[in-house]
Amino acid sequence: MLSPITxxxxxxxxxxxxxxxxLIVDIIRSIRQATSLA
Length: 38
Fold this sequence. Notes:
This protein is mostly helical and about 40 residues long. The chain has one helix spanning about 15-35. The longest helix has 19 residues, at about 15-35. It holds the Pfam family Oxidored_FMN.
């Protein structure tokens, strides 16, 4: 997902490093929200 060589997506998860990392960041945020004790 992070490699520009294998990630040829043209949506919000492709292109720049920020976009390529977006899926991972979204997953981590969702896990934190779902497991938050606060």
